[in-house]
Specification:
By secondary structure, this protein is of the alpha+beta class. The chain contains nine helices and eleven strands. Strand 6 and strand 7 form a beta hairpin.
Length: about 325
């Protein structure tokens, strides 16, 4: 027993040594990095978004009695809101006659400069023409006037035949442009809208409204289709071409700003018109009509009598 105290001290020393060893692994040294928690600045910022003001939206005043038309198809399109106010067979594929020339002009304005001078090749003079002479030199702008004001089929042929890839390539570009504009009911067989047993263009009232809306974004196109009459001459002043717009409404209704007439025996009377009234912009299309000018005018008055345009503000989120 005389060794008992020695054993006690021995065990105490052993325990102390163990605790010291453990502390080397558990307790941080002065050189260790000790994680600290610091308050972080608030990096979130409130962002105020200025939402665009929606265009005035057309709202019917009451239950509408739709106008009675002889036209096979018709549509009224509000340009600012992108809404159709009236639709009759608006997706039916029909013969478009010379309304095709809107796309001929759209493609020409992309392929040529208005001041480019083209030579008139041999062309056919079926239907309406502007009186071009083979070998004549004429600007693209003058051809566009002939195409859109007096509906010259010869002007459409000249624009197409001067394409580097020829007339067939020009028509191919017309159809490519139709696909780009999502004109799903449309196929162009030529630049004029004339049809025969082998080929005929097809489109719908909806597609023509969309095409007109796109074409009017070009200031040159908009200026030409609103022209009542003009006398054109070639750069060498050898030939003169007096042109008169076939759109009768352009002469009698100041709010009508164009756009394109069309007629063949198979297509019937066709018309696409652009109207500006009381800060509103409408496009009216009739296809296969027996009275294109009368029915288009009736559709204009019906739209303004039965719709009002309301300012719709976006709802606040909080």
């Amino acid at each position: 027993m005389k060794n008992f105290p020695d054993r006690i001290f021995y065990l105490i020393g052993l325990a102390a040594l163990f605790c010291f060893g453990v502390s080397l692994f558990v307790l941080p040294s002065q050189n260790e990095l000790v994680p600290q928690i610091y308050p972080q600045p608030n990096l979130a910022k409130e962002v105020v978004l200025d939402l665009p003001t929606p265009a005035p939206y057309p709202v019917p005043k009451a239950d509408l009695a739709e106008p009675i038309l002889t036209a096979t198809a018709a549509a009224i399109f509000d340009r600012q809101s992108g809404v159709f106010l009236f639709k009759k067979n608006h997706r039916t594929k029909l013969l478009p006659a010379s309304t095709v020339k809107m796309m001929t002009a759209v493609v020409s304005l992309k392929l040529y400069s208005p001041l480019d001078v083209l030579m008139v090749p041999k062309v056919s003079y079926e239907g309406q023409d502007m009186g071009l002479v083979e070998g004549e030199l004429i600007t693209v702008e003058a051809l566009l006037y002939g195409l859109l004001v007096s509906s010259g089929n010869d002007a459409g042929q000249v624009l197409a035949k001067n394409h580097p890839g020829g007339e067939a390539k020009f028509i191919e570009v017309m159809n490519e442009e139709a696909r780009n504009l999502h004109l799903e009911d449309t196929y162009f067989a030529n630049t004029t809208g004339l049809e025969n047993r082998e080929q005929a263009s097809l489109t719908s009232a909806r597609d023509l409204a969309w095409l007109a809306d796109e074409a009017l974004k070009n200031d040159i196109f908009a200026r030409i289709v609103s022209t009542k009459e003009i006398i054109l001459r070639d750069p060498q002043k050898h030939f003169y071409h007096p042109l008169y717009n076939l759109n009768q409404l352009l002469w009698v209704m100041p709010e009508v700003k164009g756009i394109k007439t069309g007629w063949t025996e198979n297509a019937g009377e066709c018309l696409v018109i652009f109207i500006e009234r009381d800060s509103r912009e409408l496009i009216v299309v009739v296809l296969g009509s027996q009275d294109r000018f009368g029915e288009s005018r009736r559709l204009i008055e019906w739209a303004f009598a039965n719709f009002e345009w309301q300012e719709l503000a976006p709802r606040p989120t909080h």
